[in-house]
Amino acid sequence: MKEISFDEFYKLYQNEKLSLVDVREVEEFETLHLEGAQNLPLSQLADIYDQLDKDQLHYVICKSGMRSARACQFLEEHGYKAINVQGGMTAFENL
């Protein structure tokens, strides 16, 4: 599984249009999220992952990087390109 530090990701995020998938639950997402992020909760991912473009690279984020790592593994097993954002939204809150 590919991973990127939050700092590296954030530099890219500020300068490019990225596909960002937030796998936190809806309530967490509604409280705080990065602009442009698509909320696909890990608990529902198996049912809704096909909403994602299979040809695009997806950056996957959660609160700390654990759920997003599981989501990346799942997506890769289904033929998607995904990168886990280490540190997640906790790292964003600590900017």
UniProtKB/TrEMBL annotation:
Keywords: Nucleotidyltransferase, Transferase. The keyword Cytoplasm does not apply. It comes from the Bacteria. GO terms for molecular function: nucleotidyltransferase activity. Residues 14-94 form the Rhodanese domain. InterPro entries: GlpE_sulfurtransferase (IPR050229), Rhodanese-like_dom (IPR001763), Rhodanese-like_dom_sf (IPR036873). SUPFAM superfamilies: Rhodanese/Cell cycle control phosphatase. This is Putative adenylyltransferase/sulfurtransferase MoeZ. It comes from Streptococcus mitis.
